[in-house]
Specification:
Elements: H1 2-22, E1 36-39, E2 42-46, H2 51-54, E3 62-69, E4 72-79, E5 83-88, H3 99-104, E6 110-115, H4 133-146, E7 152-156, H5 160-169, E8 175-180, H6 196-201, H7 206-214, H8 233-244, H9 251-257, H10 268-280, E9 285-290, H11 300-306, E10 312-315, H12 326-345
């Protein structure tokens, strides 16, 4: 018995320490830039990209930070000049997700603004407890406010849909048109997880064990694509490396936990406000959908109900359709711009 206890007690101590470590809240990590980027709206802290990221875009891009509150910086990629387009990604990618769409629009009179959510990419990292839908909406609303935009078109996917629409609900005079990709904009009315992976992620300790210790969320991104080859190793590095090397990689799992699983989930009240805002919209919109998305593909009928007059482009892409069908997204955006210009002439 004594021998057994000698083994058991140290083992319990090690297990307890391990559990405490993997379930830690994490700290604030604030990136630093170098130099300035000067725009019409002011001067911003420039951020020279590391080589592995810089090689994925051309030299026309601007890379800078907007500090949305003390020590919380949002990294912005921006390219082009003309009508402003706000493109919001979701979990666990970054503003780089729209780089192929931007390439399709090269030469067009558009200013493409691609922020990265706090906790991901090169934006600030924060404790898990600060990842709330309210906070992310407020931070992106502050980005739009500081850029002093008077009008824009919105493109949103995954968490980028509700976060972007929530930010625009706080700046309602800006939105002139939208291209909606695989996302969800409705508050839940019943208890239900969006996927088995999300249900597992919400399980304390087990979620951390599965998605932060045993499995890399970034390595599994090809699994949710129509074509897994659309997520080669250099793209996985582009999204994963800034998070895993930051010293606080809590965002991907925490953002999965932020997904609603019923009316009582903490994200639901904000989603109700977003749903009401979407219902009030009278703008030109198009829907481009990845039908092979195992997470959100089945929600296309919901999005059609939100935008009943919007043309729909159904594609064979998966969840991150920006990597697979950038041309379809760019074409939808061009049509929205044309409609806005026609309405302005009329």
């Amino acid at each position: 018995m004594k021998t057994f206890l000698k083994i058991l007690i140290p083992a319990l101590i090690v297990i307890t320490a391990f559990v405490i470590y993997i379930t830690r809240d994490g700290g604030v990590i604030t990136p630093s830039g170098e130099g300035e980027i000067v725009l019409d709206s002011g001067a911003y802290e420039a951020y020279p990209l590391p080589d592995y990221a810089a090689k994925m875009i051309d030299s026309d891009y601007k890379s800078y930070f907007i500090e949305v509150e003390p020590d919380i910086k949002v990294h912005i990629l921006e390219v082009g000049e003309g009508f402003p387009v706000y493109l919001q990604h979701g979990n666990p990618t970054s503003g780089f997700l729209y780089r192929k769409v931007a390439a399709e629009l090269k030469g067009r009179q558009v200013r493409l603004i691609m922020p990265t959510m706090v906790g991901l990419g090169f934006s600030s990292k924060i404790p898990a407890s600060r990842h709330t839908l309210d906070n992310h909406v407020r931070w992106m609303a502050e980005v739009l406010k500081q850029l002093q935009l008077s009008e824009l078109i919105f493109v949103g996917q995954d968490w980028g849909g509700p976060i972007g629409m929530g930010a625009l609900a706080l700046n309602p005079e800006m939105l002139r048109g939208a291209v909606i990709l695989n996302t969800a904009l409705n508050a839940p009315t019943e208890v239900r997880d969006i996927s088995a992976a999300h249900a597992l992620a919400k399980t304390p300790v087990l979620g951390e064990l599965m998605f932060e210790v045993l499995v890399s969320i970034f390595d599994r991104l090809p699994d949710v694509q129509g074509d897994p080859l659309s997520m080669p190793s250099e793209v996985l590095e582009l999204y994963g490396r800034p998070v895993t090397e930051s010293g606080n990689g809590k965002a991907p799992l925490t953002l999965m936990r932020m997904v609603t699983d019923g009316p009582d989930h903490p994200s639901t009240p904000q989603l109700r406000l977003i749903e009401d805002y979407v219902e009030s919209l009278d703008i030109p919109a198009e829907i481009v959908w990845g039908m092979n998305d195992p997470v959100l593909g089945r929600l296309l009928p919901n999005m059609k109900a939100n935008f009943p007059d919007a043309p729909v482009t159904e594609t064979a892409a998966g969840h991150f359709l920006q990597e697979e069908v950038p041309g379809d997204i760019a074409n939808a955006l061009i049509r929205i711009i044309d409609k806005i210009e026609d309405n302005s002439i009329k």
